[in-house]
Amino acid sequence: MTSPLTPPHRPSPDQYQHWQELAAANGGQHYGSTWAPPVRETDPEEVRQELRKAGVVAAAVTVSGVLLGLLWLWLAPRVPLISDGTAVFLNNSEGEESIGADGTFALLGLAFGAVAAGLAFWYERRGGIWLTAGLALGSVLGSLLAWQVGTRLGPTDDVVAHAREVGKGVVFDAPLELHAKGMLLAWALGAMVVYLLLAAAWGPREFEGEWASYGGWGPDAAPAPAAPPAAPSAPSPGDKA
C-alpha cells in the first residue's frame, strides 16, 4: 500500500501557508482556501458630491418643464366648441384635436427627455445611481410642471362662462387638457432610454481608473510570487512500492 495523497480539491499544507502569507501581504481577508481583495470603503465626501450633482440635474430638468408647457400650449391643436344659447357642443364632432393634444405632449416629452439625457451625460460622464435618480425625478416633476403651465395659461376651464362671454353661435376653444395621464411619463421614459444608451456606448467601463484603490489589483500590479514546490515526502518503512 502507498501513503495517502492530498485530494485534488484540497491544497497542500505548503500551498495553504503560501496563500495565507499572500493574503496578509495584500491586505486581503482569508476564507478557508481562498482570499478576497479588500473592499473599497465609500467616501462620504464623494457621496455628497454625487448628491449635489444629482440635485443640480433634477432642478435644471424640472425648471425646463416651463418651456415644455409653453411649447405644448403653442403647438397643441385646439378643440373648437360652439354654443346655441342653451348648451355647448363640439363644433366638429369627428375631430381628433383632443387626441392630438395628448400626442403633442408625449412627443415633446420624448424630445425633452432625449435632450436632458444628453446634457446630463455631458455634465457628468461617470454617471452613477444618484445622477440617474436625479434625472428621472426631474423628468417626472418637469412633466407635471409643464402640464400645469399649459392648462393654466390656456383657455379657461369654465366653459359655460366662456360660452356666455363669446355669445351664441360663436366658435371658441375648449380648455387645454391632458386626457391620458400616462403621457406624463414620456419625458422620463425618453430620458432613461437615451441616458442608458449613452452610458453603454461612451460611459466609463467597470473599474476604469480605479485599480489603484484595490491594493495590488489591476493591470499594473506586480505578479504574485509563485509558490515553492513542495518537497516530496520520504516513504515510510512500512510503505510498499
How would you describe this structure to a colleague?
This protein has a domain at 96-202. It contains seven helices and five strands, in the order αββααββαααβα. It has helices at 13-25, 44-63, 65-75, 97-123, 129-153, 159-166, 186-202; strands at residues 29-31, 34-36, 80-83, 88-90, 172-173. The strands form two sheets. A three-stranded antiparallel sheet has the order 4-3-5, with helices on one face. Strands 1-2 form a two-stranded antiparallel ribbon. A hairpin with a 4-residue loop joins β3 (80-83) and β4.
Secondary structure elements and their pairing?
Layout: H1 13-25, E1 29-31, E2 34-36, H2 44-63, H3 65-75, E3 80-83, E4 88-90, H4 97-123, H5 129-153, H6 159-166, E5 172-173, H7 186-202
Helix pairs in contact: 2-5, 3-4, 3-5, 4-5, 4-7, 5-7
Brief descriptors of the model:
241 residues; mainly alpha; two-stranded antiparallel ribbon; rod-shaped
Which ranges are low-confidence, i.e. pLDDT below 50, for 5 or more consecutive residues?
A: 207-222
Strand order of the largest sheet: 4-3-5
| Biggest sheet features | 3 strands, antiparallel
N-to-C order of helices and strands: HEEHHEEHHHEH
Principal-axes geometry comes out as rod-shaped
- Let me know the average pLDDT: 78
Radius of gyration from the CA trace? 34 Å
> SS-based structural class?
mainly alpha
Helix fraction by DSSP (H/I, runs of at least 4): 40-55%
Overview in brief:
This protein is mainly α and 241 residues long. The protein has helices at 13-25, 44-63, 65-75, 97-123, 129-153, 159-166, 186-202, and strands at 29-31, 34-36, 80-83, 88-90, 172-173.
